[in-house]
Task: inverse folding
């Protein structure tokens, strides 16, 4: 009995049809990405330009010289750039116009 898989034959998983389901209205109405097909097309046309546009939404202390280094494994993103994840994850949101101010904690009176 052979345990070697025949990789040229499709598996049950690859034979399964892909079904699409419409997004619930609340998700569709609040989505930040309104036209995913257009975004996919932009990515397929020029992946580096696509990710460069995405990266411009973040704060960088030093800009990149190249977006992606495809030279084998491991590959590298935003070569030469420097950023601070804390600034991007917390500070830029806390300092934005729509930032919600923290509510002081209240004692529950012994609950």
Result:
């Amino acid at each position: 009995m052979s345990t070697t898989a025949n990789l040229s034959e499709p598996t049950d998983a690859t034979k399964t049809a892909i079904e699409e389901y419409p997004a619930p209205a609340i998700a569709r109405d609040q989505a930040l990405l309104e036209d995913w097909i257009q975004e996919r097309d932009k990515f397929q046309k020029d992946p580096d330009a696509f990710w460069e546009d995405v990266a411009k939404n973040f704060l960088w202390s030093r800009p990149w010289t190249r977006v992606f280094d495809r030279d084998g494994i491991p590959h590298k993103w935003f070569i030469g750039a420097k950023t601070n994840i804390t600034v991007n994850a917390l500070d830029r949101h806390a300092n934005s116009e729509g930032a919600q101010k923290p509510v002081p904690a209240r004692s529950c009176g012994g609950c």
The beta strands are 66-69, 76-79. The radius of gyration is 23 Å. The chain is about 35% helix and 5% strand. Residues 35-94 form one domain.
